[in-house]
Amino acid sequence: MNISGKRKLSPHFYPYGILLLFSAGLLLWFLLPAEGETAVKAFGDYVTDLREAEQMLSGKEETERLLEDGEAGLHVNGYEAAFDKKKQIFYLYQPAGSEAWQGDLRPYGAELYILSDEYTEDPFRAVEKGHVFEAVFCTKDSYQRAGIVLTGMPVVKIETQREEPREYPVEDIDNYVFNSETRYYGEITVFQPGSLALPENKGAAEAYQVLHRKVCYHERGQNSALFSKKSYAVKLLNQKEKGISEPLLGMQRSTDWKLLAMYSDPNKVRDKVSMDLWEEIAKAEEGFNERGPEMEYCEVVLDGEYMGLYGMMLPVDEHTLGLGEGNVLYKILDWYMPEPADIQASIDQNYEVCYPVRIRYPEKNGAVEELWKPITEYFTCKYWSIDFNAYSEMSYVENLADYYIFIQTVSGFDNYLKNTYIFSEETDGGAGYKMITIPWDLNYTFGNCYSYEPDLNYTAFNDDASVNYVEPVLEQLFRSSFNGEGEVLKERWNKYRTGILRTEHITELLQENMDHLQETGAFARDTERWEGALNSSDLSEVESYVERRMLYLDEYFGNF
């Protein structure tokens, strides 16, 4: 009789039951943390009062070698934390607005003790102040003091393993002009917002992510190469050192990225606000693709040295634009145009370069004559034998209007023809082309202009809000309005002026970005790191300029 009233298990079940129990136990063994450990270690788990720390350090020898030699350190989610070897400071990213610690923080090679102070009970208060927590790494016989900074800014850590100088003969002009920089190879670790920010993972719960890849990088820029704080072009690599596409800082996937030093901008907001405004304009257009660069802020530690505040930029290329067969992408690098004979010489030599024009996509596959054909036709009607009808027909007038309005709004001093991308689309089965213009390199904006003043970072502020920053031929196209181009321009200006280009919206973007830079502590750290950058958090001059500029443009565009 079954006293419990429950049916007995068949004897045949017992082997299977034992197996199930063993499997469940094994699974729990893997899932549960080891004895004495928690599933995730947070900042607060290491906080110790001074008296207790002194007792633990009694009889031990203080050293400076533990962290320097890599015998001890910090892991975040299993990866080496960013560490400034000179200042002996770790930089740990915590997503803005976090109410609880994000990421698994664990020391290796030593025990970690964070000394209690006024901020340890609420470490997130320390972010804006740039507070440096005092930490001690302790082994059986020795200990080392270090600092820990919590930043609200994503952190990019790059470690160089080797370098490869590249030199090309003058005859190989495609490479000589652009690819002579030394390439550095190593590893990159990005401490960033997690998959929650990515469109393809909408709804995911992961709020913190560490991306670790091999990397190739080199210095970039023309004027920016003059600065002590360098900008870099970065290429993500897989284990076989082939390009790999990854999302960074909530932006779309890409293999190639740019790290902008923003050295010439004392406010560190011009690039970001300009790109955000163009992105808003581009998203409002449904008839064609005029997507431009995107940027998010980060802090960089390069080869154990804190390098300060940077802009991680998603570039303009065939991937971000979705280019394919029938498209050609050109980059314009200076304030003048080549002559027909110059382009013909490049065709004859099979060059992808006719300075200041460079074919960026596709890479030449045989003869380049077909790749030069769209831009040659475009330059012919725009510059060499001006034909406004042909110029208009080869363009999306709406794109030219967007570009015109944008450059005038942000006062793009360095975008007078220069620093633009132009890509072609085939029409009429390949018999004709449409050209789309996209802005690039937006540091000299909102009153900042290039000036040969090395002590002032080659930058001067021009408070004259009535300067015209577009090419005369572009202005003439819209003023002549042979096919109603002027009406298109005026209509789009009026549309944007009540939305995207409201004065209040622009000044709000400027202030919001400055607030973010300050609240994360990054602006103060960059200011301390680069005294020569002449950083200033005062936006009153820029905001005043914007207000006067927009009033001037109301009158300017009203006359079309």
The total number of structural domains is 2
Strand fraction: 25-35%
Task: Quote the distance from N terminus to C terminus.
Answer: 101 Å
Number of strands: 26
How many strands, which pairing sense, and closed or not: the largest β-sheet? 7 strands, mixed
Quick structural summary:
The protein is of the alpha+beta class and 560 residues long. The chain is built from 15 helices and 26 strands.
How would you describe this protein?
- The chain has 560 residues and is α+β, with helices and mostly antiparallel strands.
- The chain has 2 domains: 43-150, no CATH class; 158-558, no CATH class.
- It has 15 helices and 26 strands.
- Strands 1, 2, 5, 6, 8, 9 and 10 form a 7-stranded mixed beta sheet that branches. A 7-stranded mixed β-barrel has the order 11-12-13-14-17-19-18. Strands 21-22-20-23-24 form a 5-stranded antiparallel beta sheet.
- A hairpin with an 8-residue loop joins strand 25 (448-450) and strand 26 (459-461).
- Helix 5 (270-284) crosses helix 13 (503-519), helix 10 (397-410) crosses helix 12 (485-497) and helix 13 runs antiparallel to helix 15 (540-558).
- The longest helix has 19 residues, at 13-31.
- The chain is globular.
- It starts with 12 loop residues before the first helix and ends with a helix.
- Residues 1-36 and 201-205 have low confidence and may be disordered.
